[in-house]
C-alpha cells in the first residue's frame, strides 16, 4: 500500500491543473458540469482576469471565486442572457464568491466593473453549453472574505 501513495499523490497533483495555455497566450479553464457544485477560480490583477476563457458544458448553478491578487480594489461581474450579478468591491489580498444560476446556453461577459477596469483589459469570456444565445434571467448571491494571496495552480 505504501507504493501506491506516491502514485496517488501524483494523480492528485495533476488533477489540480484545471487550466491550459493556448497558442495566443490566453488561459482557458474548462469546468465540470455545473450541477456538480464546481467552483471557477478567477484571479484579478491590474488589469487582467485569469483565466481569460471559461467553458462550462451545461447550464446550472456555478460559483465563481474571485481573488484580488492586485494592488487596487476590484470586483467581478457576470453578464449576459438575462444574468447580471456582481460581487461587492474586493480589496487587495481578499476574495469574494459569486454564485450564479446560468439557465441559458451561450456567451456571458465576465469583467471587473470598477472605474473602467474592463476597458483596460479586465474581462473574460464565459461559454455555457453549445454557445447558442438565450434570454432568461438568473439569480446570484455574493460573499466576501478577507485573507489572501494568489490562487494555487495559477
Describe the structure.
The chain has 154 residues and is mostly beta strands. It has one helix and twelve strands. It has one helix at residues 4-15; strands spanning 19-21, 27-30, 39-45, 48-50, 53-56, 60-68, 77-80, 83-86, 95-102, 106-111, 123-128, 140-145. The radius of gyration is 16 Å and the shape is globular. Residues 1-36 and 131-154 have low confidence and may be disordered.
Our count of helices gives 1
C-alpha termini separation: 32 Å
Order of helices and strands: HEEEEEEEEEEEE
**How much strand content do the residues show?**
35-45%
**Which spans have pLDDT < 50 for at least 5 consecutive residues?**
1-36, 131-154
Mean pLDDT over all positions: 74
Number of strands: 12
The helix content is: under 10%
Largest sheet: 7 strands, mixed
Query: Order of strands across the widest beta sheet?
Result: 1-2-5-11-10-7-8
Integer-rounded radius of gyration: 16 Å
Q: State the shape.
A: globular
Label the structural class: mainly beta
Features:
154 residues; mainly beta; 7-stranded mixed β-sheet; 5-stranded mixed β-sheet; 42% strand; disordered C terminus
What does the secondary structure layout of this molecule look like, with pairings?
Elements: H1 4-15, E1 19-21, E2 27-30, E3 39-45, E4 48-50, E5 53-56, E6 60-68, E7 77-80, E8 83-86, E9 95-102, E10 106-111, E11 123-128, E12 140-145
Amino acid at each position: 500500500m505504501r507504493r501506491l501513495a506516491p502514485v496517488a499523490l501524483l494523480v492528485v497533483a495533476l488533477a489540480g491543473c484545471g487550466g491550459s495555455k493556448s497558442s495566443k497566450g490566453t488561459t482557458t479553464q474548462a469546468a465540470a458540469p455545473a450541477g456538480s457544485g464546481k467552483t471557477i477560480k478567477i484571479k484579478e490583477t491590474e488589469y487582467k482576469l485569469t483565466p481569460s476563457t471559461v467553458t462550462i458544458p451545461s447550464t446550472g448553478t456555478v460559483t465563481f471565486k474571485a481573488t484580488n491578487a492586485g494592488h487596487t480594489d476590484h470586483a467581478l461581474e457576470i453578464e449576459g442572457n438575462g444574468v447580471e450579478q456582481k460581487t461587492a468591491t474586493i480589496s487587495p489580498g481578499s476574495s469574494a464568491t459569486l454564485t450564479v444560476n446560468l439557465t441559458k446556453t451561450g456567451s456571458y461577459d465576465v469583467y471587473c466593473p470598477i472605474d473602467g477596469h474592463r476597458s483596460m483589459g479586465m474581462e473574460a469570456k464565459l461559454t455555457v453549453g453549445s454557445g447558442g444565445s438565450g434570454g432568461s434571467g438568473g439569480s446570484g448571491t455574493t460573499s466576501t472574505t478577507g485573507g489572501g494571496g494568489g490562487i494555487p495552480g495559477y
